Amino acid sequence: MTRIDFYLLSSDQPQTRLAYACRLAHKAWQKGHRVYLHCASEQMCQELDALLWSFRRDAFVPHVILGEGPEEAVSCGNGEQPGTHADLLINLSDQTPSFFSRFQRLAEIVVEHDGVRLPARERFRFYRERGYPLHSHQIRTAG
After folding, report:
1. Which sign, positive or negative, has the C-alpha torsion 100, 2, 133, 65?
2. Torsion angle (degrees, nearest 10) of CA 68, 52, 92, 44
3. Mean pLDDT along residues 36-53
4. CB-based contact 38:93 (threshold 8 Å)
5. Least confident stretch, 35-39, 74-78, 81-85, 125-129
6. How distant, in Å, are the alpha carbons of 1, 48, 90 from that of 102?
7. Angle between the 15-30 and 42-54 helix axes, to the nearest 10 degrees?
8. Which class for 76: exposed (0-12), middle (13-18), buried (19 or more C-beta within 10 A)?
């Protein structure tokens, strides 16, 4: 059964989610995990792609936007199919991805902004009602 972690960031800036997603993807990739970052839109995919190149001076995360090249250990997408990924799903959409249960782990990144927080509460209830193991992590952020 998929383990679901909610990362509750102290920021009220939606952009902070993307920066934290990069950190989480980098850490998971360093530990040998394959990561799929599920975005809300093509525009978010483009923003995340750019941020993955620049979020840290000393970090390199091999990644690709699905459909724009061969799959990498870290892939971004916003469609209904996450390629061959089934390890870690980082959900940056405000919807529950239909394919989430094929992943070993799901990370939901939440900031203190109603446009992000309220849909996240609905997803939390959705997962809880179906018996998924839920874990919450309070994360203090600068932004």
Report:
1. negative
2. -60
3. 94
4. yes
5. 81-85
6. 9, 23, 13
7. 60
8. buried
Q: How far is it, in rounded angstroms, from Cα 33 to Cα 3? A: 15
Residue range 109-134: average pLDDT? 97
Give the separation between CA 125 and CA 106, rounded to whole angstroms: 15
Q: Distance between CA atoms of 33 and 29, rounded to whole angstroms?
A: 5
Q: What is the pLDDT of residues 76-104, one digit of tens each?
A: 999 888 989 999 999 999 999 999 999 99
CB 87 within 8 A of CB 33: yes
> Domain locations in the chain?
3-139
Instruction: Compute the mean pLDDT over every residue in the chain, rounded to the nearest whole number.
Output: 93
Higher pLDDT among residues 70 and 40, named by residue: 40
Residue with tokens 């009220």: 12
Compute the Cα dihedral for 12, 115, 20, 6 and give only its sign.
Answer: positive
Assigned CATH for 3-139: 3.40.50.10110
- Residue 39 in contact with residue 80, Cβ under 8 Å? no
Residue found by looking up tokens 């090249």 in the block = 69
